[in-house]
Amino acid sequence: MYLMAFLLAGIVLHSCSSYKNNSSQVVIWELSDPQKLNPILATDIGSYDLDNNIFQPLINFDYHTLKLVPILAESLPDVKIDSSSGHMLITYELRKEAKWDNGTPVTAKDAAFTIKVVKCPSVNDESLRTYYDKVNDVILYPDDPRKFTIVYTEKYMLATIATGTDTYIMPEYAYDSSKYLENFTIKQLSTDSTLAHDAKIIAFGKEFNTEKYSHDPKYISGSGAYKLSSWVTGQQVVLEKKANWWGDALKGNSCFFDANPSKLVYRTISDMTSAIVALKAGNIDVINYIKPGDFDELRKSEKFAQQFNMYNPLRLSYTFIGLNMSSPKFADIRTRQAIAHLLDVTRIVNDIFYGYAQPVTCPVSPMDSMDYDFSLKPHEFNIDTAKALLAAAGWKDHDGDGILDKVINGKKTDFTIDYLFNAGNEQRKKVGLIFKEEARKVGIEVNIMPQEFNVYADKLKSHNFEMFMSVWGFQPGPMDFEQLFATSQSRDGGSNFACFGNAESDALIDSIRKELDPVKRAAMTKRFGNIMHNDCGYIFLCAQQATIAINKKYSNAYPSSNTPYYWEAGFDAGNGGK
After folding, report:
1. Of these four, 79, 97, 309, 411, which has the most CB atoms within 10 Å of its CB?
2. What are the backbone dihedrals phi and psi of residue 32, each rounded to the nearest 5 degrees, phi first?
3. Segment (H or E) for 413
4. Rounded Cα gap, residues 164 and 359, in angstroms
5. Residues near 417 by Cβ (< 8 Å), separated by ≥ 6?
6. Could you give phi then psi for residue 411, rounded to 5 degrees?
7. From CA 369, how far away is CA 197, in angstroms rounded?
8. Percent of the chain scored above 90 by pLDDT?
């Protein structure tokens, strides 16, 4: 599954204005503002959701079927392996109807420019660039300005998905008016490390990374149905439907050509209780996360049921506990396994998620029937097993104070654990409290430490933590584990926060990336899942269900397992709802 890694933002209280919606627009709840409306620079899920309406990739996963469908591309690409070089060649033809906001056609040059931006060393897109590390050229065809071939230097199982679903094509005229990148080739950007010091490369990155290309309506431009109209920080982002959008002629081809509302209004309400009040009052039309307990209560309300449809599809994500494997406390695998046996997953699913979740045991969605290893069972919640593992790892209460201790690097160390989570996330707080309760029974003292979201995220990136809880979300398709679990990603702000891995796991990740046969790849993916399950640097808890409410005045409003769990641009009030 192609990764869209995200961490839920912290919660800050904002007031809810008395804003009433009308039938020509949809008002969507958001927990926090998007980070950047720039698909190359953004790393948060909120930005991704909005970017889907402003920009367009070549192909994407249809929200209804979860199957790949062409968007800017005329069809799914032609993929070949060159027998002489071993290069992977992915050829696209762009739709002749596709136009930019200035009326000019979307061309292969724009696609090549977008990949140049991704490869440009001065652009702040480190998490995205890893998927393009083996792209070393884009072939253009002088006789066909809509055709191009992306060249991978070796086989990569996500080549089509990564370049297709994440190449949100950007207009060269709008994002490089100074033509800084015009005379650089993708091959140069792929092979010449000295370009990082080139004046034009530096100037482009300095310009492209600025706030105006991420926040200012005058500078944000894509081929999608909507344009950024206004952004009031902490309150709302408004997208307006373009007049005479080119995609209207293709309505019905896939969900991505359904663009019905005149406006999409994304309202920021960071307090969940206030969000429910706003929903009931008609100030918002759709919400993609309701606390499971509240969701249960709302389902019992006849009045609420008259106004809203409620859905709970399984999300393409997994919730987990991470242990800092670079900490001497967790160096012994038996210690980490003991922690896993102290986590009561059944209680977490039932008491915290109210049953709107299912246990998982590896970093793959159970919706993926081929790659998920159903033979793996959750670590049994067992206090006695945890005690035995801790004793075997050398943890004992030597001084009789009720807390286990051990000599580490010549110093007596009490077994305390700082449990980090983003402040305001009550579910993560409750998981921590349950763990604290059970850990005390074996002599471990747990400190519950809520953190403001940006502080929390920075501590994870710098490995300045002992234990944390989070969730990763992703798209359909096979999973590339490099970004999250390769040892290289535990350095320089990478996403391998727990410092998992060794030479063996790195080699397996690399083999999975290069295997195109889905059956062979599934066997390797299951082996990797077994390694992670046994290692317990990451302790997988559950896959949550989305808890969604959508106003019944809209038709064509379907739930999805893919974030944000619906296609809001398809909502249609003209037919009187479902």
Report:
1. 309
2. -150, 165
3. strand 411-414
4. 32
5. 329, 439, 444, 445, 446, 447, 466, 467
6. -130, 135
7. 47
8. 84
DSSP element (H, E) containing 551: strand 548-551
Looking only at the bridges linking them, the beta strands covering 467-474 and 416-422 are parallel
pLDDT at 1 over 50: no
H runs (alpha helix) in 402-447: 426-440
Sheet architecture: strand order including 88-93: 78-81, 88-93, 144-152, 135-141
Q: What is the pTM of this model?
A: 0.85
Please give the DSSP secondary-structure letter assigned to residue 32. S
Confidence of residue 356 (pLDDT cuts 50, 70, 90): very high
Q: What is the mean pLDDT of residues 475-500?
A: 90
Q: Give the chain's radius of gyration (CA, Å).
A: 25
HEC-encoded secondary structure of 498-521: CCCCCHHHHHHHHHHHHCCCHHHH
Cα angle value 546/548/261 (rounded, 5°): 125
Q: Does residue 577 register a pLDDT over 50?
A: no
Q: How far apart are the first and last CA of the chain?
A: 32
Please report how many Cα atoms fall inside a 13 Å half-sphere around the Cα of residue 565, on the Cβ side.
Answer: 24
Sign of the Cα pseudo-torsion (468, 473, 474, 476, in order) = positive
Residue 288: both structure tokens together: 């993609």
CA–CA gap between residue 257 and residue 472 (Å, rounded): 28
Burial, 402: exposed, middle or buried (Cβ in 10 Å; 0-12, 13-18, 19+)? exposed
Of the pLDDT bands very low, low, confident and very high (cuts 50, 70, 90), residue 11 is: very low
Q: Which residues contact 28 (CB under 8 A, 6 or more apart)?
A: 264, 265, 266, 267, 284, 285, 286, 287, 288, 564, 568
CA distance 257 to 260: 9
Q: Which residue has the tokens 């596709």?
A: 98
CB 56 within 8 A of CB 67: no
| pLDDT tens, position by position, 272-309 | 899 999 999 999 999 999 999 999 999 999 999 999 99
Place of tokens 């809810």: 16
In the block, tokens 């082996």 appear at 527
CB atoms within 10 A of CB 306: 8
DSSP state of 337: H
- Closest among 578, 355, 320 to 472, alpha carbons compared: 320
Residue 418 pairs in a beta bridge with 447
Do residues 389 and 430 touch, judged by C-beta distance below 8 A?
no
pLDDT tens digit sequence for 362-407: 999 999 989 999 999 999 999 999 999 999 999 999 999 999 999 9
Asked if pLDDT for residue 9 goes beyond 70, the answer is no
Tokens standing for residue 236: 């709302």
What is the three-class DSSP state of 467?
Answer: strand
Q: Given the structure tokens 């996360």, which residue do they identify?
A: 289
E strands along 16-95, which residues?
25-30, 59-61, 68-70, 78-81, 88-93
The pLDDT, as a whole number, for residue 17 is 36
